[in-house]
Write a structure and sequence with these properties.
Length: about 190
Amino acid sequence: MNLILLGPPGSGKGTQALKLSKQFGFKHISIGDVLRSNVEDRTDLGLSAKKFMQNGDLVPDDVIIGMVESSFKTYLSPESNLTKIIFDGFPRTKSQAISLDSKIQAFGLRLISVVFLDVPDSVVQDRLISRGRDDDSPELVSNRLRVYKDLTEPLLEYYKTKGILTKIDGDRSPDIVFSNLVDMIELKVK
Ligand code: AP5
Ligand code: MG
């Protein structure tokens, strides 16, 4: 069983992915975390991603799709025994979604749901500005939100049409959001 967490910057994708991994044993794949550790280690991937991340723009699709493909090879090898993945921050564009669809088919994976964590802009702005990550300045948060609306928000319709979108109110305490997610998962895997 696999899950995608979709939502604006600061909607709680990372927070909830961590809690769900502890509860259900999901492998948490956070593209943002993988990119940040590559930037820190000054790998080729990190060097090419850095300028996009520090502007709050998306890293180009070919880079991200290549990266996710190599994760699939690692985690979905016959020896890995891994059957549960949470994708946090992927897909973020139509091309990424199409690429993921084909991988899901090729590997015979079961996508239980695409969860949309719905949080108003003003709330995510407050959350991120008080967190203070490198890309959490007011200007960058505004750009990240703009990019989200232009390139990622259309995926809500894409997954709704496929009948696998679940909307969850992310503007609640982390524990309430988590308990709604747990209820949703238990319902889907029944
Ligand atoms: P990424 O690291 O994925 O950042 P993001 O999507 O902007 O989201 P955040 O990680 O900031 O927020 P989150 O939703 O995980 O919330 P969190 O739980 O941390 O991506 C960074 C960059 O990498 C992108 O800008 C792009 O350049 C690149 N990138 C990544 N994926 C890519 C892709 N697929 N394609 C191309 N480029 C890509 O919570 C945020 C804060 O709120 C925390 O302080 C938390 O404690 C707090 N909080 C969480 N939940 C609650 C709650 N319920 N109530 C109150 N506070 C809460
Ligand atoms: Mg995150």
